[in-house]
Amino acid sequence: MTKFRAKLTYILILLIGGSMLIAGIFMAKVLENSHVQSLKDNMQRELMVISATGDWNRTGTESEQLAYYTSQAKLIKASTEARLTFVRADGKVMGDSDQNPEQMDNHLNRPEIAAAVTNGVGYTTRYSDTLREKMLYAAVPVKSGDKVTGYLRIALSLEQVDQSIRSLWYFLVAGLAILFVIAGIVSYRIASGITRPIEKMTRVAQQITNMNYESRVASYSNDEVGQLGQAINRMSESLQQQMARIQENERRLQGVMENMMSGIMMIDREERIMLLNPSAEYILGFTAQELLGKKYNEAKQQYEFAKLIQECIETREPIRDEMIFYYPAERILDINLNPIAHEDEEWSGVLIVINDITAVRRLERMRSEFVANVSHELKTPIAAVKGFAETLLAGALNDKETAVSFLQIIFDESERLNRLIGDILELSKIESKRIPMQFSPIYLPEFLEKSLSVLRKEAEKKHIELSLHVDDDIYIEADEDRLRQIFINLLSNGISYTQEGGKVKVRVEPLEMNTDGDYERLRIIVSDTGIGIPKKDLPRIFERFYRVDKARSRISGGTGLGLSIVKHLVELHKGTIRVDSEVGIGTKFTIELPVIH
User: Fold this and answer.
1) In this structure, are strands 465-469 and 503-513 parallel, antiparallel, or unpaired?
2) What cellular component GO annotations does this protein have (predicted)?
């Protein structure tokens, strides 16, 4: 903007100075011409006065006339300081104030004399060879009646005129110099007044370019510059609003992308990976820094996955497929590929949505196994009831001892069938969260003691020692019936799978004391010295109908749903349960529950 200000200043100086220079030159020429014209008028008047007052028709010999006119010319020069010459009608010089007339040429053809003959007065400016300087000549005819008897010529040196003109030029140059300085200052002020708001607008525009949309131009007048500033302010406000909307949309999109459970990958028209959300990083096992900017076939991806992308790029059609990935962990993925096109239908890339459906497929498998297990578990007692009933109908009813034995078996199997159906219904309610939870404060030592007393007779039959270790001042807020169901199941399993003379223990450990001295969580451990569980079966111990030893489980009267019910009930209390076991040493169930104040 400084260059523009300098240019504008120079232009204004040149315009003002040039105009003043032209005006000065014109004025000088007018003054020069006026001065010369004034000299001519004065010379004419002087010649007319000399002609009227002098005797210019004197008679006598030529030598007498020469002497007379020369003396008159010198006399007049002494008074006027102008050269005076008397020329006879035939052009003969009869007298001159500065030179010897006898030595002078005939002047009849001189321009001033010729002009005087024609116009009555003649003027000319020329260099005088006699006086060797530039002279202004004026001539008038001298008449005797109507007859021209000669010519009077007066000459004035132009040195005086030139001196006056030089003085005028000196004054003009000095005035122009002063005016140039004033014009420069004024031009600079004018240029600054014009460029200063433009500079401020330029700075605001640069700040807007640097995304500082809060910058504004100071208000100016309503002229074109002010209107430009107002337009920039409106543009800045509009850009600020648009950028705010864009940033808000970006934040929303970023939040959606970062929190989506589905993996999102985008490939541009150059087949490079341009977008990858955290879920996609987790599913694929690579970070965004490792994949972004690389071509999909160079990104160390599974061959079948890269082939699927290539097929979508070639066909430009949506593709959906399920695929098993083995890195970073074995997963079943549902992959959706959709080509991206703009409004002008120009293809711009591929959008890939990846869903981890491993849990879904596992759930479907578990449901399938559940149906199969339910069918199998129901089939066994029903087959037993049906078989013994057919035997009784076939004639065994007459044998009273056999009939009673068969009827007892039928009763036991129906009881088992009733328990199985009851557990299935109970598990279904728990999983669907259709059971109401009635939380209330529970004094844990008394509660656990009552739970142990329910199973004490059963433990005594196998000479199993039941023990409880809990502090006296521990309370917990929970659903009492459901909590009792949890411990009855765990204690019953411990008694069932512990050999005679073994031990089943319950221990409570407070955890996470807060600033008020209250416990935030409790750890409840139910352990036994039973047969234990193999390590390969531990991950599936809480699955429905999963049994480590199916034959022995049926003998114990279990339905295979107890631990699954326990796990769901613990989760309904916002707690966790885990199992540790070693074959031949025993099993330990650890439950952690929050203490609700």
Assistant:
1) parallel
2) plasma membrane
Contact 138, 43 (CB under 8 A): yes
Given a contact cutoff of 8 angstroms between Cβ atoms, the answer to whether 327 and 281 are in contact is: no
The angle subtended at Cα 512 by Cα 507 and Cα 518, nearest 5°, is 90
Is residue 334 within 8 Å of 247, Cβ to Cβ? Answer: no
pLDDT in tens, 471-488: 888 888 888 888 888 898
Contacts for 510 with CB less than 8 Å, ≥ 6 apart: 471, 474, 519, 521, 522, 523
Region 23-48 average pLDDT: 80
Determine the Cα–Cα distance for residues 249 and 152; give it in Å rounded to an integer: 106
Taking residues 566-595, report their average pLDDT: 89
**First-to-last CA distance in the chain?**
72
pLDDT at 516: 62
DSSP 531: S
Q: pLDDT confidence of 336, banded at 50, 70, 90? A: very high
- Per-residue pLDDT of 160-206, as tens digits, reads 667 777 777 788 778 777 877 887 787 777 777 777 777 777 777 78
Q: From CA 111, how far away is CA 139, in angstroms rounded?
A: 9
Amino acid at 20: M
Distance between CA atoms of 206 and 212, rounded to whole angstroms?
Answer: 9
**C-alpha angle with apex 562: 557 to 564, nearest 5 degrees?**
145
Residues 95-109 as b/e (b if ≥16 CB within 10 A, e otherwise) read bbbebebeeeeebbe
